[in-house]
Design brief:
- With 115 residues, the chain is mostly helical.
- The protein has one domain.
- 77% of the residues lie in helices and 0% in strands.
- Helix 1 packs antiparallel against helix 2.
- It is rod-shaped and about 80 Å long.
- The two termini are 26 Å apart.
């Protein structure tokens, strides 16, 4: 039969494990959400550029070598829009990679503790 101290120690150990598992589930969910946001931004950027190309005079895409001309009608607004979206996509992807690396490091630490 265990003493009260042993039972309390066991409860603290179980509570700590549950907290780590909960934090790990949150991290995985956040990572999946960030991946979805990155994908959505990439798709939005691709659709926006392709729609802008179709709205060129004559309704046809620009000839090869003149793709930058799709933003001539709106001046620098198109360039700014693409730059902001590309920056946001890059920043989100970077944060996603950092969180993924941190999650792997935490998992390795937990595995080392179990041994």
């Amino acid at each position: 039969m265990r003493s009260s101290e042993e039972r309390i120690a066991q409860l603290h150990k179980i509570a700590g494990r549950m907290a780590r598992e909960r934090a790990q589930r949150r991290a995985v969910a956040a990572g999946a959400g960030m991946a979805a946001v990155c994908l959505a931004l990439a798709v939005a950027l691709a659709l926006t550029v392709s729609r802008t190309a179709l709205r060129m005079p004559g309704g046809v895409p620009a000839p090869e070598g003149r793709m930058a001309s799709i933003f001539v009608e709106n001046g620098a607004v198109g360039y700014i829009f693409v730059a902001v979206l590309a920056f946001a996509l890059g920043a989100l992807f970077t944060v996603f990679c950092v969180r993924l690396r941190r999650l792997k490091a935490e998992k390795e630490r937990d595995d080392d503790r179990k041994l």
